[in-house]
Amino acid sequence: MNSSRWLGAGLVLPATALLLLLFLAPTLLMGLMSLRNYTAGTGVGSDWTIANYLSVLTDGFYIEIMARTLFLGLVVTLATLLLGFPLALFILRSSPAVQTLTILLVIFPLLCNIVVRSFGWMVLLSPNGVINETLASLGLIAEPLDLMYNLTGVVIGLTQIYLPFMVLLLVPALQNIPADVEAAALGLRASRPRTFATIIVPLALPGIITGSILVFVLTISALVTPRMLGGPTYKVMATQIYDEFMTNLNWPAGAALAFILTAITLGLIWGANRLAARYTKGLQA
Amino acid sequence: MSSLTIKNLKKRYDDLTVVNSVSLDVAQGEFVSLLGPSGCGKTTILRMIAGLLDPSGGQILFGETDVTRLPPNRRNIGLVFQSYALFPHLTVFENVAFGLRRQKVSGAELDTRVREALERVRLGQHGDRYPRQLSGGQQQRVALARSIAPRPSILLFDEPLSNLDAQLREEMQIEIKRLQADLQITSLFVTHDQHEAMTLSDRICLMSGGDIQQFASPEEVYFRPANGFVSGFVGSPNKLQGRVSGGRVALAEGVMLDAAPSMLEGAPLTVTLRQEDIHLVPGATGELSGTINLRIFEGASVQYVVSLGQGVEVLARVTSRGPLADLAPGTQVALEIAPDRIFLSPAEVSA
Fold first, then answer.
1. What is the pLDDT of residue A182?
2. What is the chain B residue with the closest CA to A285?
3. Which residue of A219, B74, B142, B309 could cross-link A73, Cys pair, CB 3.0 to 4.6 Å?
4. What is the number of structural domains in chain A?
5. Pairing, β B57-62 against β B4-13
6. Can you tell me the distance from the alpha carbon of B332 to that of B307, in angstroms, rounded to the nearest whole number?
7. Element (H, E) at B25
8. Strands (E), A6-142
9. In this predicted structure, what is the pLDDT of residue B350?
């Protein structure tokens, strides 16, 4: 081996070692853990079993949590997409100064800690929070609205937190659309709404898919916001995994749940990539 | 199909005037080029006719119909862009079918008309391909087929050949010319390339600074330029600075040109001499004479750099098969220029 190859090996070694030691090894340990039996009171046993997976996949309690998590992911993804797309278009079509300012405003919330932001939403959304107090004092509502400790609160919080990711991925996707294509469609007798639906959206599809995957995956694995805005009763997969480990001390069940969440995530990414490949055939050289 | 008329068309951005009250008319079936340097307002005019830009004033008529306030999708136009602007996510067939589908053409008729349009540009076999799988020339032909398929009343070209290499560009010129002659569609062609404009057009509208400089046939524009700008833009001109001296033109001390300027004695002026209008007589001395400095062989023609003394140089071009094709550097030549081939303009109007 010549010196440049040694150099190459040397350059990737630290990262590789770190990854092997701190990611793959714990994952392996967790995998083994998820296959151990568990007895309440005595803790993790030494027998091998797949009961942890079976119970998660058959128990109505877990199935409801998984369904709720996926539904939450879907709602938040759609919400960020619906809010993010017009915003991305606006950014793209405004003057450079406005563009910079808007992008800064989009990024700005990311600089604030997620706990603080979630707490901020609690102040706004709680039964005697800012929103309910204002509406009540205006005489618009008699009883406080249920904005927290349910789907509504978690969706509002997560949508605000993940919107920047969607926007930042949509802007370059829309930027890649050739300039005259829209004019060409208009010239070919397509109305503006039709041009948007048949030209702009399909050409932005790569960005829409990437952004959606990212927001979906972040949402279904989010812990802090669902815990704070969903409360102890609104359980999603991430909070349940946390509870299995930290409250119930049922590590095998938590590990199994974690692996199922990972499997769902990987399956979705794979599926979305297949979908993207089919619908963006002409976009790849 | 219809004629195109624009009346006092203006476009202003704040205090910047891009198009300054332009009026022109294109007869039914006529091919007109908007020719000019970049920033002369030609593309702005085209985009206003297409409805992609709102005019600051004036009127656009297709035939008798005022379309000034109509959105682009209701103007029945065909657009061809420099960037081709094909829809990359649709096949060639679907690209061409796009405008037809908006006209509610479907089924067998749709199929026939798409095939017909693709046959016209000799791409009948490529319907299933995606635009990325085609060469630049093929893509532009698809764009051409796409624009004619819905049978527009007016075809608008925005520098469609500028992205193609020289050989392909000539092929496409012939293609466009043939297509337009067959279909007799009123066409407006924006370009900065005078050869393109000359080759294709029935009439050329030469523009500069948001104004029309001359609107005439290619022959007229070439042989009888309306002003100094036109003479400097068309052909391959020499542009020289001179001064009125004793009723004639002095290019430098002792270098006199046989022309009769209408300006006042001593006034600075710009002299435009076409390279192909300068006739060289080797071995002779005349009113205007000089020495060959450099010979440049260009294939069909030979270009000479001729020094007239006092630092004044002109370029002369002769055919490479003629008797003047082989003058060695250092040869003494007399320059003969017909007086009506010398274009004079006040110095400040020089382009």
1. 93
2. B132
3. A219
4. 1
5. antiparallel
6. 10
7. strand B16-26
8. 36-39, 43-48
9. 41
Q: Same structural domain for residues B70 and B112?
A: yes
Domain identity same for B14 and B155: yes
Do B29 and B157 lie in a common domain? Answer: yes
Distance of CA A16 to the CA centre of its chain: 27
Contacts of A184 in chain B (CB under 8 A): 79, 81, 85-87, 143, 146
Residues B211 and B245 in one domain: no
pLDDT tens digits for A144-183? Answer: 888 889 999 999 999 999 999 999 999 999 998 988 999 9
Structural domain including B284 reads: 236-349
Note whether B194 and B274 are same-domain residues.
Answer: no
DSSP one-letter string for B209-239: TTEEEEEE-HHHHHHS-SSHHHHHHSSSEEE
Kindly report the CATH number assigned to the domain that includes residue B266.
2.40.50.140
Inter-chain CB proximity A184 and B81 less than 8 Å = yes
Shared-domain flag, residues B166 and B279:
no
Helix (H) or strand (E) holding B77, with range, is strand B77-81
Residues B200-234: pLDDT tens digits? 999 999 999 999 999 999 999 998 888 888 988 88
Q: Which residues contact A164 (CB under 8 A, 6 or more apart)?
A: A106, A107, A109, A110
Chosen from A177, A182, A189, A195 to mutate, greatest number of chain B CBs within 10 A: A189
Indicate the pLDDT class of residue B81, thresholds 50, 70 and 90. very high
Residue A94 Cα, gap to closest chain B Cα (Å): 16
Q: Of B180, B202, B228, which one is at a domain's C-terminal end?
A: B228
Residues of A in contact with B150 (CB under 8 A): 188-189
Instruction: Say how far apart CA B79 and CA A191 lie, in whole Å.
Output: 15
Give how far Cα A207 sits from Cα of A44, A242, A251, A271, B277, Å: 45, 32, 38, 16, 59
C-alpha dihedral over B134, B135, B136, B139, to 10 degrees?
-30
**Average pLDDT score over chain B:** 90
Q: What proportion of chain B, given as a percentage, has pLDDT over 70? A: 99
B348 alpha carbon, distance to own chain's centre: 24
Distance, in angstroms, between B83 CA and closest chain A CA? 7
Q: Which residue of B has its CA nearest to A176?
A: B88
Q: What's the rounded Cα separation, in Å, for the pair B59 and B36?
A: 22
Contact A72, A236 (CB under 8 A): yes
How many structural domains compose chain B?
A: 2
Domain range enclosing A145: 52-283
Domain boundary among B189, B208, B228: B228
Residues B139-189 have pLDDT tens digits of 999 999 999 999 999 999 999 998 888 888 888 898 898 889 899 999 999
Q: What is the CATH number of the domain that holds A199?
A: 1.10.3720.10
